[in-house]
Amino acid sequence: MLRPLTLAATLAAGLLPVAALAQTLTVYTAGPGGLADAMAEAFEAETGIRVDVFQGTTGQVMARLEAEESNPQADVVVSASWGSALDLYERGLLMEYVSPNAETVPDFLKHTHYVAQGISALAIAWNTDSGTPRPEDWSDLAAEDFRDLVTMPDPAQSGSAFDLIVGLEAARGEDAWDLLAALADNQMIVPGPNAAALNPVLQGAKAAVFGAVDYISFGRAEQGEPVEVIVPESGTVIAPRPMMILASAANAEAAQAFVDFTLSEAGQTLVADTFLMPARTDIEGRRPGIEALTVIEVDADAASARRDEIIARFNQVTGR
Amino acid sequence: MPMVFRPTASGLMTLAAATALLLLVALPVVFILAQAVFPEFARGSLEGAFSRLNLIFEDARLLGQTRNTLLLAASVMLGCLVFGLPIGILRGLCHIPGARVWDVVFLIPFLIPPFIAAIAWMMTLQPRGYLWQIAGFDMGRQLFTFAGVAFVMTLNLFPLVYFAVSRSLEGVGGRFAAAARVSGAGPVRAFLLITLPLSVPGIAASLLIVFAMSIEEFGTPAALASRTGFEVLVTGIYTRLSDFPIDLNGAALGSVILMALVLAAFFVQNWVATRRSYVAQTGKPANLDKARLGVWTAPVLLLFTLVAMIGVVIPLAAIVATSFMGTIAGGLSWDNFDTRHYQPIFRAGSRAAQALVTSGWLAVLTAFLTAAIAAAVAVVVVRGQGRGRQAMDALSVLPNAIPAIVLAVGVILAWNSPFLPVTLYGTTAILLVAYAAILLPYPIRYAVARLRQIGGSLDDAARVAGASQAQTLGHVLLPLMAPSLIAAMMLVFAIASRELVASIMLAPAGVRTVGTFVFAQFEQGSVQTGMAMSTIAIVITSSILLAVNLWLARQGGSAFSG
Fold first, then answer.
1. pLDDT for B316-375, tens place per residue?
2. For chain A, which domains are there?
3. Whole-prediction pTM value?
4. pLDDT band at A270, cuts 50/70/90?
5. What are the tens digits of pLDDT across the range B132-166?
6. Which one of B244, B409, B413, B526 would you mutate to disrupt binding with A, by most A Cβ within 10 Å of its Cβ?
7. Picking from A206-215, B95-104, B350-359, B527-536, which range would have the lowest pLDDT averaged per residue?
8. I need a surface site. Which of B107, B188, B253, B392 has the fewest CB within 10 A?
């Protein structure tokens, strides 16, 4: 992957990235940004292998992989959407690897070619100072109390918001679309990816996020923001974050070591520190775990095949 | 135009400048066009040629985005005239108390990343925002509209008009106006008939840049427009590229439309600028006496203050205030004052510190590289002759027509091809390549406009006096162009130090710039840390610009006066 002339050209430009010198590993990862950096540093301290991180949304990561398809740069990829791993697998782009540390990862969170790093769930993020009644269920946000006070991440930009729509449709059928239409009638806004949906709620411009990624809200709550994460008892979807090694990885051994490290006790504790649920059942999370949730099963494969149709319908129902 | 250069010397210069333009600008454009024509080009196939080009005229979404883009750019141009023209004229013709300070103040909007400015306005005007906390009402309804987006974009760009107008009026000098006065014209008449028409190229050039920048602006529409359901070409292209599955062909088609729009605007401006001669500096000392304001001092200062309040103070205050808030919900209260969001930035060896260093170096290198290329291009275009001149004239138009996002796409397509024996892709140097190509328009426009105002008789005089070509260039033309080049370099430095779009798309793994660091904070980290980083970057950049400006003042000139 590394070409000698690339190095020469870089030297000539006077902008030498250390990347080209020592043994390095390139990791493309969806958020949380702090976790990617902390994991890279801890891994580097233990193995001496330098990790170069590209961090973006799942969409950005996947887009970059596709743009670089003819000349791949990444070794390890962590995405926030289970379906994207399946897609890469089916296109033959992944390397088979089962980490010895994955033993206590539940079966539905691992595969021969990829394994969960951590898990988030979708929830209502509610501003407790907003003066609105505490919402219990998704449908409460369509009530008059929340008129003009609800935001939702854009399913075209947030893979988890997309999964939520698919999950609600699986659980409720057409009622799910009626709910989305009622939310749109209630002046719900769809301002962008997850952070864009949460920020107006923090300042109080809006009162609640429909389909917030839970770990981000837990993190903000810990910083002292008056945000409560409410998971409706009627059920929600979880978003396991697949970690995989590309078949084109220049340094397969280092890549496997990185996967092992992420699934080690030290690595999983770092995952837990960001308020994600750790993939390993024997590592304690810092928030309620899967067993406390009513999880709606989603057929990721079927959903990603219907992606365009679902997003088009969402845009139509919400009048965008 | 007098023939000054021997063919060999000008040929050499043309070759160097042309090589730079071809490599930096033409190469990515060729790949974009190829991708638009051949949908499978990125996968190495030429199948289905021209099969999707018709979408440019048929795809309802593309057409809607094109219409929105044009509407927005037109509104922003108008807005920039309203905000920038009056203060620009006053600054150019009158003694304004603290003129140099105002120049630095109006440079600040360039230092605020548009994306951050948009978020700052959002946090100020939305319900329960800072305005509501202070004054008890909000303007969310006004902000999240077409007019709101245009307003915020105007505030990012109006300084372009201010600087171009004031510099151009100073460059025109009082001499022609004085001649008009001697011939019996009143001051207003002299201004309207002489000074203003002579500064038309400068104003037209600045409006072109405003137009080009507003149609390629990403941050403001990305932050505000999704709330208004208002999609423009740039956000459309970005969506096609950043959402999986990506649509390279659609992005290339949108890029072709963008390029066509900017090229059209350029030709209009070029027609305005070249159909007459605007030579205003012929070597005779210009009468630089500026009008005294007298009783008008107070109202004029009030106007400057008002523009500075809206354009600079409010967004800046919102950014700084946010960075010092313990919690967002805590709002503007002293209990909520907290510096903890600065800690991750000041941690030794932090990613934030690395980002600052990377962006700093890149911005400095970009400023020097673009200024060098621009000087060569300007000399060839304005003073050269024959085929080389025409080719260069056409080539020098290209950078104007290439929005940052388009260029980034082209750079990926061109530099990531597996057939290249050498590539900069995947290294930090690719960012320098992209920044230089994106920011070349400023130095080229400034240098060409400046050189057009410098009469060829000066070159002739130097040559008659026995100076060689190189000496003429080094001792006469370059010093005369220097103020414009330095002003352009400062602009380039300011914008490059916080560039966002190309950085997101091209920065290799492990490399962070100020722009990508801040963007990531809003996506995943904390709003306050994002604002803290912006504050630090703004303070550092403005200190550097202030220092350069003070140094220039001690040299007896100003980056902003002709």
1. 999 999 999 998 888 888 888 988 889 888 876 788 888 999 999 999 999 999 999 998
2. 4-119+239-287 (3.40.190.10), 120-237+295-317 (3.40.190.10)
3. 0.83
4. very high
5. 999 988 888 888 888 999 999 999 999 989 988 88
6. B244
7. B95-104
8. B188
Residues of A in contact with B421 (CB under 8 A): 3, 5
pLDDT band at A221 (very low <50, low <70, confident <90, very high): very high
The structure tokens listed for B36 are 């638009």
Task: Please give the domain boundaries of chain B with CATH numbers for all domains.
Answer: 1-27+349-536 (1.10.3720.10), 54-276 (1.10.3720.10)
Q: Do B329 and A55 touch (CB under 8 A)?
A: no
Closest of B228, B191, B207 to residue B89, by C-alpha? B191
User: Does pLDDT of A224 surpass 80?
Assistant: yes
CA distance B207 to A265: 59
Residue B6 CA, chain-centre distance (Å), reads 35
Nearest to B562 by CA among B317, B301, B280: B280
Find which of B43, B369, B524 to mutate to test the A interface (most A CBs within 10 Å of its CB): B524
The answer, yes or no, to whether residue A1 has pLDDT greater than 50, is no
Token pair of B318, please? 């919102």
CB B95 within 8 A of CB B290: yes
Which ranges in chain A belong to alpha helices (H)? 4-13, 33-47, 58-67, 82-90, 159-172, 174-185, 194-203, 214-222, 252-262, 265-273, 300-305, 307-317
Out of B126, B244, B330, closest to residue A200 by CB: B126
Which tokens belong to B97?
Answer: 């108390």
Helix B114-125 vs helix A194-203: crossing angle, to nearest 10: 40
B380: its two tokens: 């060839």
What ipTM was reported for this prediction?
0.80
Cα–Cα distance measured from residue B482 to residue B2, given in angstroms and rounded to the nearest whole number: 22
Q: B128 and A129: CB-CB below 8 Å?
A: no
Confidence of residue B171 (pLDDT cuts 50, 70, 90): low
8 A C-beta contact, residue B509 and residue A74: yes
